[in-house]
Amino acid sequence: MSWISLTLETDDTHAEALSDAMLELGALSTDIHDAAAGTEREQSLFDEPGESAGEIWSVSELTALFEADADITSIVQAAAQAAQLPIPPVYHLTHVEEQDWVRITQSQFDPIQISSRLWIVPTWHRAPDPAAINLTLDPGLAFGTGSHPTTKLCLAWLDENLQGGEDVLDYGCGSGILAIAASKLGAHHAVGVDIDAQAVAASRENAMLNQCDETEMEFHTAHFATWTDPAREAWADVVVANILANPLIMLAPILMRATRQGGHIVLSGILMEQAEEVSHVYQQWFNMHIAGVREGWVLLAGTRK
Ligand SMILES: C[S@@+](CC[C@H](N)C(=O)[O-])C[C@H]1O[C@@H](n2cnc3c(N)ncnc32)[C@H](O)[C@@H]1O
């Protein structure tokens, strides 16, 4: 089975009416996104006859999901009529193949601002601030849209602490979001590792989407043998791992061996009540501290002794 995703731009007053009409006409879901946040334009093609030329309005992007055999032309015409638009709006269509409803629910996620210079922008949105560092992301079936508090904590740490030129290991890379962010923030080389082959594939695709240099980035399915190879020891300036408390405890010797002396370990996926236990394990090799807390999740960071 497959679906069609319809996207159109309209003014904010008509967006709700179009959305309601499309749901009545068979849309499986709709999403209204403020396409011109913070900006306003004067007058539009959609102005009702007699509306004053100077009226202020803002642009909304409406996305609606339909079954593949839906008669989109008729639906758009009927919805425009119901919303009292003088002419049907221009729209574009994307085919959504059967992959997983995860992707469809993920399509509800909007651009996320991590800092004044760093944004995570899903592939189906325009970058709200084109001058910023925009990480374009399609998480597919992998974890890591940037919306989870633990991912935000790790991204904020990278944003605040990377100086440029570091070698970075992202252990449990999911969508590749942290490795790619590190690269965009100036890391010399980023290595992403995940136990899940689908996550590694998503990471590689996201690296390509972000035009990351192949020589500066690599992704691997986790094999313990690779990471106990002495040639790979003590090479990373930063090791970031957003997994969960128990795997982090289990992986501690591997993550420790990868970190060079004076390098940083950055751990999340840890609940407040688990922080002490995880910290205690890593404390034998690192000077650990709590570097951030968000919605009950903790970011632990440390410097290799
Ligand atoms: C919570 S997600 C984090 C994804 C991404 N780094 C982020 O911050 O949003 C954890 C990831 O770790 C992976 N993972 C879990 N246990 C692992 C292990 N023992 N070795 C490597 N990866 C693991 C999972 O497959 C998943 O993709």
- Structural category is alpha/beta
Helix content: 25-40%
Write down the domain tally.
2
Q: What is the ordering of alpha helices and beta strands?
A: EHEEEEHEHEEEHEHEHEHEHEHEE
Q: Strand order across the biggest sheet?
A: 12-11-10-13-14-16-15
Largest sheet: 7 strands, mixed
Q: Which fold name corresponds to the CATH topology of the largest domain? A: Rossmann fold
- Which ions and ligands are bound to the chains? S-adenosylmethionine
Q: Let me know the average pLDDT.
A: 85
Rg of Cα set: 23 Å
Quick one: overall form?
elongated
Characterize the structure shown.
The protein contains 9 helices and 16 strands. β15 (286-294) and β16 (297-304) form a beta hairpin. The strands form 4 sheets. A 7-stranded mixed β-sheet has the order 12-11-10-13-14-16-15, sandwiched between helices. A 4-stranded antiparallel β-sheet has the order 2-5-1-6, covered by helices on one side. It is elongated, with a radius of gyration of 23 Å. The protein folds into 2 domains: 3-98, Alpha-Beta Plaits, CATH 3.30.70.120; 112-304, Rossmann fold, CATH 3.40.50.150. The protein is 30% helix and 32% strand. The model is unreliable at 37-56 (pLDDT under 50). The longest helix has 14 residues, at 245-258. The N and C termini lie far apart (54 Å). It is of the alpha/beta class. Bound molecules: S-adenosylmethionine. It catalyses: L-lysyl-[protein] + 3 S-adenosyl-L-methionine = N(6),N(6),N(6)-trimethyl-L-lysyl-[protein] + 3 S-adenosyl-L-homocysteine + 3 H(+). Belongs to the methyltransferase superfamily. PrmA family.
